[in-house]
Automatic annotation (TrEMBL):
InterPro entries named in the record: BUG (IPR005064), Bug_dom1 (IPR042100)
CDD domains found in the cross-reference section: PBP2_Bug27 (cd13578)
Keyword presence, Zinc: no
Signal peptide: 1-24
Protein name in the entry: Tripartite tricarboxylate transporter substrate binding protein
Cross-referenced SUPFAM superfamilies: Periplasmic binding protein-like II
Transmembrane segments: none
Keywords for this protein: Signal
Similarity remark: Belongs to the UPF0065 (bug) family.
Superkingdom in the source lineage: Bacteria
Amino acid sequence: MLGIARYLAPVCLAMSAVAPCAMAQDFPNRPIRFVVPYQTGGLPDVMARLVAQKVEASTGQPVVVDNRSGASGILAAEYVAKSAPDGYTLFVADIGHFAINPALYHNLSYDPNRDFTPVTTAVHGPLLLVANSGLEANSVPELIALARAHPGKVNYGSPGNGSVHQLAMARLSLQANVKMVHIPYRSTAQAIPALVANDVQVMFVSPPSVNEFVKSGRLKVLGVGSPEPTPLAPGAPAVAASGFPGFNAVTTVGFLAPAGTPAAVVGRLNEEIGRALKAPDVMAKMPGMGVTVVADSPQEFRKLMLADQAYYRTLVEQTGVKVD
């Protein structure tokens, strides 16, 4: 028996090495699932559906968008992390899931680095620092001067504790050494009417959420959260260039596969999703959604994830932001 085992061992080892390659060559041969940790209608959902249509047409296999909202995306992340690492279940994750949650939750049930394999960064877009039109400040320096002259009198809104929107304002307050009062809402859809009504005076939001209010003069843009000015907010100066170097308030969405997914399968997914994102009709829709296409490599997405994790870990430690 020992002699037989000695001869079989190399054969089994060779077969185990060939199996992932064979699976990749045959991939995909059944439906693919994009798990979106939000309800329908938001940026990750709309972007995922645009990509799904293109990937379905390219591969000839159905691509299903599965909306699993709740618990700050933790439920959706758990579901994908526990799925088979075969490329048929992907997590459409944003910066909150792969960078902010690990900084906020000490006993998070998933680890974005251990439990997932990056496929590609899909899109990213800046948040805008927007103010009620009646606020006596027309720039970031004027806002800081106002907040400094009246500590605790300027309120800022957000779609909830621990959101990228709140953390952006917490970072600005920290760097400027001023006190502004955070008023959390259940969603952006609730926070923006409060901003228009002057219940809160400023907040960070995505461009599409406020474009009509800015055009009508009910809101005004003070700055943009990207490191550099962007065509998505013409004429808006970067907050970082207004005396706050290193400031970063950009939302990112990408695709993650369960850890252990074969590299060849990840490569095929990267190719298919990247091609879908770069399709002219898809790219044409992105500015209206407040984002631009990235479509990078798995390695580049991993590097971005690690950088964002370090940024938000430090920010949460410095500001003391907590979730309920």
